[in-house]
Amino acid sequence: SEVCDKLFRSAAEAGPNDILKLYNPRGSIINISPALEPNSPHSCYKLEVVAADCNSEPLGVELAGTLGFDLSAMEKRLRGLEKKIFFEASEAPAVVFEMKKQVDLFREKLESVEHLSWLGLFKDLSEGTPKPSPFYHKRTLHKTRKECEHVREKFLQMSSLEISEEVRQYLKTPTFDNWQWEDAEIMVLLQFMYTDLDFISTFNIEPEVLQQFLFEVYRRYNNIPFHNFKHCFCVTQMMYGLIWLTDLRTKMDTIDLLIMLTSAVCHDLDHKGYNNAYQINARTELALRYNDISPLENHHCAVAFEILEKPQNNIFRNLPADQYKRIREGIIKCILATDMTKHNEILNKFKSILPAFDFTNKDHKDVLMMILIKVSDISNEARPMEVAEPWLDCLLQEFYNQSDVEKLEGLPVTPFMDRDKVTKPSSQTGFIRFILLPLFIELANLFPCLEQHIIDPVRKALDYYTEMEKALEREKQNRAQSESVSKSKETAVSAQSTSDTKLK
């Protein structure tokens, strides 16, 4: 039994203290034991890591230990080999010359750049998109102090450097690829947005206070597959892009733009990966605290103002009380609008005022601000497929994690999160058709320029997932037919065998 357990842990890349769950081909949970019947390509078991030991060592150290590597010994050996190349070899290998050539080229590039730009110089925008890491179950939910300090140090080192013109323009477009950027670089880009929209000078925001605010925001986003710091950045970047694409700077007060950008930055603070339905059904502390009314969104708001309550983080600390009050009301209104249970109510209100929309009417502007953060929050499908699809994988991972926990705890299972019922295309086609497009189309009715920027890509995404859904359905039918033929043959062989036995 112990050997069996080790074998399954190895297959799942799980540590000795991780919790595994095994399903039989019918989807029922079963015990891991040597008595298990063999499976086949047509009747597979399903193995999952449901919960992990959060105190385990980082993945690299654990893997090295499992494989029997001594990392410090390997480093010494590598240094020894480097010395041998120069002291013992009669001729240095070609790779050394190639590396030296690369260093010289890099030095030449550095010396020819008038203003050193970290984000422009070191970032090759043509490089392939790295995929998000699937190893979230190997990380602690909250970021460790070491992890945070490392990112903070890098951010402060880069914070005063120039951003290239190419990146500045790219940052204003919905095609921006977040997967190419590290967390510290993302913080520099967020800082640039505040500067570029003139918030620093208009609202007397001290640069070191803005940096401390952004760091605290980074720290309070958790290590979960989807609602993490990179998602916060994507939503904020889309909001920033929409402000420029729709020329909102000439139509709305700067304070309203500040409210929208800061709301986007804070909109999912301290999300733990389980939605409001789970919070309410599981009677969590959040659901009890907020009386089942938008528990998550209320919590995100509370964490945002908890951060802003400290003077060293408070980017609004130099504003008069009436302006701060307006900002606080606006941020709360925007973040609460991201609760999808309010979707139809907000969209219908926007549709009703759209024929006579007036930018000088406060109620009209309030609804528009809520629509803009809603669009930004669910805008991944408006991005290029190579950027959007990894985000869908992350979202489904978070959904599956929740439905697994719901099954374990005997709670109602959220249908669109159930891994046994949902596929990638089926999760998207309905969402795009009934939620995304109606919302985006109404915003484009006010700003026709958005048709090409966000509606065309969403229509392409709908076509893509519709085709994928059809392909999966065809594959399912083919498999069913082949299984039917296989069973017919088995029945015929069995009947023939019985007949032969009787004749004997």
UniProtKB/TrEMBL annotation:
Region of interest: Disordered: 473-504
Biological process (GO), any one: signal transduction
Keyword Zinc-finger set for record: no
EC number(s) on file: 3.1.4.-
Biased composition annotated in UniProt, kind: Polar residues: 479-504
Domain of life: Eukaryota
Main EC class the enzyme belongs to: hydrolase
Keyword check for Transit peptide: no
Reactions that this protein is recorded to catalyse: 3',5'-cyclic GMP + H2O = GMP + H(+)
UniProt binding sites for AMP: H227, N228, F229, K230, H231, D268, D377, Q428
Pathway(s) of this molecule: Purine metabolism; 3',5'-cyclic GMP degradation; GMP from 3',5'-cyclic GMP: step 1/1
Family: Belongs to the cyclic nucleotide phosphodiesterase family. PDE9 subfamily.
Record PANTHER family: CYCLIC NUCLEOTIDE PHOSPHODIESTERASE (PTHR11347)
UniProt protein name: Phosphodiesterase
Source species of the chain: Takifugu rubripes
